[in-house]
C-alpha cells in the first residue's frame, strides 16, 4: 500500500496537472480572441474557414510520429512514420462544420483523403521508395511551460493554418491535414508534406 507521503505527492501532482491544464485553456481562449481580432473583416476569414472545413482531420492517436526533423521557437516538426484511421464518420451531422458568421453548413468529405494518406504515407517513387511522405508540426513542450510563449505559439499555428489553407504555390509547402481537435488546444497539429530538398539545392 502506498505511503501517506506518496499519496500526498500523487494528489499534488494531479492538482498541479489540473492547474496547468486550466492555465493552458485560458491561454488558448486568449489566443483565439487575438486571432479573431486579427482576421475580423478580412476576406481570408470566410475563405479559410471554408477550406479548413474540407481539410482532412486526424486524431492524435491516428498518427505514428518518428524522428525530429526540425525545431523552431515555438514548434517541433517530426516525420510521420505511420497512419492508422481509427474511425471515419459516415453521418453527415458528425462531420458538418458551421462557418463562423454564416448560416451555411459545410459537409466535409474527408474520407477518401484520409484513406489515401493512410495507404500512401510512404513514398513509392523509384528514387524515394520507403521515405516518409508527410511531417507533423506541433507546439513544442518548452512553449507550453511559458504562458506568453504558448499564446504566441497558438496564434502562429492558427495563422499558419489559415494561410496555408488558401495559398497554392510551388514554393509554398502544402498542408495536407490538421488535428481534429480545437486549433487552440495544446495538442493541435498540422500535417505537411515532408521536405527533402532545400532552396539551396
Walk me through the topology.
Layout: H1 4-39, H2 43-53, E1 57-58, E2 63-71, E3 75-83, E4 96-98, E5 105-107, H3 111-119, E6 134-139, H4 147-166, E7 175-179, E8 189-193
Parallel strand pairs: 1-7
Antiparallel strand pairs: 2-3, 3-6, 4-5, 6-8, 7-8
Domain Protein kinase: 63-201
Organism: Pseudictyota dubia
Biased composition (Basic and acidic residues): 12-21
What does it look like?
By secondary structure, this protein is α+β, with helices and mostly antiparallel strands. It has one domain: Phosphorylase Kinase, domain 1, CATH 3.30.200.20. The protein has four helices and eight strands. Strand 4 and strand 5 form a beta hairpin. Helix 1 crosses helix 4 and helix 2 packs across helix 4 (147-166). The model is unreliable at 5-15 and 91-111 (pLDDT under 50).
List key phrases describing it.
Kinase-like_dom_sf; protein kinase activity; six-stranded mixed β-sheet; 201 residues; Protein kinase domain-containing protein; 8 strands; alpha+beta
The biggest beta sheet is recorded as: 6 strands, mixed
Radius of gyration: 19 Å
How many distinct helices? 4
- N-to-C SSE string, H for helix and E for strand: HHEEEEEHEHEE
Average pLDDT metric: 81
Per CATH, the architecture is: 2-Layer Sandwich
Instruction: Give the overall shape.
Output: globular
Number of individual domains:
1
Give the class-level CATH name. Alpha Beta
Give the structural class: alpha+beta
Unreliable segments of 5+ consecutive residues:
5-15, 91-111
Amino acid at each position: 500500500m502506498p505511503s501517506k507521503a506518496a499519496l500526498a505527492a500523487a494528489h499534488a501532482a494531479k492538482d498541479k496537472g489540473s492547474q496547468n491544464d486550466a492555465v493552458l485553456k485560458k491561454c488558448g481562449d486568449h489566443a483565439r480572441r487575438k486571432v479573431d481580432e486579427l482576421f475580423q473583416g478580412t476576406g481570408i476569414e470566410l475563405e479559410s474557414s471554408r477550406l479548413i472545413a474540407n481539410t482532412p482531420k486526424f486524431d492524435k492517436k491516428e498518427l505514428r510520429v518518428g524522428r525530429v526533423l526540425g525545431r523552431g521557437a515555438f514548434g517541433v516538426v517530426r516525420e510521420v512514420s505511420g497512419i492508422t484511421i481509427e474511425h471515419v464518420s459516415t453521418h453527415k451531422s458528425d462531420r458538418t462544420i458551421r462557418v463562423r458568421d454564416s448560416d451555411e453548413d459545410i459537409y466535409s468529405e474527408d474520407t477518401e483523403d484520409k484513406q489515401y494518406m493512410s495507404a500512401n504515407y510512404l513514398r513509392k517513387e523509384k528514387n524515394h521508395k520507403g521515405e516518409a511522405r508527410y511531417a507533423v508540426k506541433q507546439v513544442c513542450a518548452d512553449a507550453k511551460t511559458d504562458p506568453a510563449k504558448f499564446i504566441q505559439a497558438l496564434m502562429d499555428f492558427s495563422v499558419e493554418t489559415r494561410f496555408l489553407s488558401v495559398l497554392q504555390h510551388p514554393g509554398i509547402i502544402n498542408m495536407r491535414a490538421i488535428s481534429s481537435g480545437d486549433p487552440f488546444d495544446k495538442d493541435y497539429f498540422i500535417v505537411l508534406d515532408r521536405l527533402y530538398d532545400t532552396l539551396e539545392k
